[in-house]
């Protein structure tokens, strides 16, 4: 059984005359564009022909989503931080769709450390802005007199990026290993039955079982990790105000 785990593929590359790569666009970037397009289409569909009094299920769904996000922000961050609601909603949508997109054959964008790292850096920027906005630049810089605060500042984006990446990528690797093992088991059964694998072989044990695992690793775990990321985002931003 050979199982090879690779990073995101290069989808578009610009080469020099000697064949070296000058510029390339990875699979994660292309999939990220698709995710953004999906979110854009959903927003356009849900917000089309809005009325003051809802007349369609589509508008009711849109208002329910907005109300849910606002209630979550208010309960976890307070009313004075309601301005962060669009960011929280956008990040959650991007992460959950970017993770669940693997269920239709694409590679999860959150299985790429550069994606989770970028999301963590954006959150870290907002945390830093909140600290300076509410406490002043002087108090923010003075806090670094304590070396532990420096470690804490660095650890925040690193831990957020690695937590999301590790859980999603780990689930993907486990699924691939089991998928390969089930394929090897299918080949062994054909061998024991004396059948010619080249003629009769198909991975009988790969039917059904990987789909069940996909429900957990892609659907359940993906939704949980998306929720954990935004909860940490809200907690860190709220701490930056205090």
Quick tags:
two-stranded antiparallel sheet, 2 strands, 242 residues, mainly alpha, single chain, 70% helix, globular
Write the layout of secondary structure elements.
Layout: E1 10-15, E2 21-26, H1 27-46, H2 57-77, H3 85-100, H4 113-135, H5 137-142, H6 147-192, H7 197-200, H8 209-241
Antiparallel strand pairs: 1-2
Helix pairs in contact: 1-3, 3-8, 4-6, 4-8, 6-8
Question: What's this, in brief?
Answer:
By secondary structure, the protein is mostly helical. The chain is built from 8 helices and 2 strands.
Give the helices and strands as they follow along the chain: EEHHHHHHHH
Distance between the termini: 54 Å
CA radius of gyration is 23 Å
Biggest β-sheet strands, sense, barrel: 2 strands, antiparallel
The best one-word shape is globular
Helix content: 55-70%
Hey, roughly how much beta strand do the residues contain?
under 5%
| Spatial order of the strands forming the largest sheet | 1-2
Structural class: mainly alpha
Mean pLDDT reading: 82
User: Would you identify the regions where 5 or more consecutive residues have pLDDT less than 50?
Assistant: none
């Amino acid at each position: 059984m050979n199982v090879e785990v690779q990073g995101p593929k290069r989808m578009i590359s610009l080469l020099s005359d000697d064949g070296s790569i000058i510029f390339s666009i990875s699979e994660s970037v292309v999939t990220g564009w698709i995710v953004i397009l999906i979110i854009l289409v959903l927003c356009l569909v849900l917000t089309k022909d809005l009325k003051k009094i809802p007349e369609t299920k589509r508008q009711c769904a849109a208002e329910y989503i907005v109300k849910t996000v606002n209630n979550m922000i208010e309960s976890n961050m307070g009313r004075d931080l309601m301005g962060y609601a669009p960011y929280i909603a956008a990040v959650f949508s991007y992460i959950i769709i970017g993770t669940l997109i693997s269920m239709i054959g694409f590679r999860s964008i959150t299985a790429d450390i550069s994606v989770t790292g970028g999301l963590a850096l954006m959150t870290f920027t907002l945390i830093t802005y909140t600290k300076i906005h509410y406490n002043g630049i002087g108090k923010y810089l003075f806090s670094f007199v304590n070396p532990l605060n420096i470690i804490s500042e660095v650890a925040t984006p690193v831990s957020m990026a690695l937590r999301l990446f590790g859980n999603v990528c780990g689930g993907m690797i486990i699924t691939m290993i089991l998928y390969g093992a089930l394929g090897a088991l299918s080949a062994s059964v054909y061998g024991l039955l004396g059948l010619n694998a080249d003629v009769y072989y198909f991975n009988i044990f790969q039917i059904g079982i990987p789909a069940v695992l996909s429900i957990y690793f892609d659907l359940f775990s993906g939704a949980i990790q998306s929720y954990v990321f935004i909860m940490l985002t809200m907690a860190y931003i709220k701490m930056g105000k205090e």
